Amino acid sequence: MLPTEVTRYSGHVKTIAASRFKAQCLALLDEVAETKEALLVTKRGKPVAKIVPAGEPRSLIGTGRQLVSDEELIKPMYEDWEPDWPE
User: Fold this and answer.
1) Taking the CA of residue 25 as centre, how many other CA atoms within 13 Å lie in the half-sphere pointing to its CB?
2) Within 10 Å of residue 8's Cβ, how many Cβ atoms?
3) Would residue 86 be called left, alpha or beta, if left means φ above 0 and alpha means ψ between -120 and 50 degrees?
């Protein structure tokens, strides 16, 4: 964890001045990822950004929607279409 003088706590969110965030950005990002706690970046005491840990990517299984039937998907586009097989 970084030295406590660079941050203060506002309620449950840790805050840091933008100038100090800039100087220690990579270490702070690592800390947010490790602790899973948000970090509020301020400029002149006003919030300008909130750094939050990335969540686990959600599964895409079951999110797709089939717009055509299986038969329509594999049927030829033209009635008289024949594959051009090499001889």
Assistant:
1) 5
2) 12
3) beta
Q: For the chain, first and last CA: distance in Å?
A: 70
Whole-angstrom CA distances from 49 to 35, 42, 43, 62 are 18, 7, 9, 34
- pLDDT, one tens digit per residue, over 10-45 is 567 889 999 999 999 999 999 999 999 999 999 998
Domains belonging to the chain, first-starting first, are 4-51 (3.40.1620)
For residue 40 the two structure tokens come to: 């509020």
In the structure encoding, which two tokens stand for residue 63, read together? 């999110």
User: Is this model's pTM higher than 0.70 or not?
Assistant: no
CA nearest 25: which of 34, 13, 16, 36? 16
Q: How far apart are CA 63 and CA 68, in angstroms?
A: 16
DSSP code for 6: G
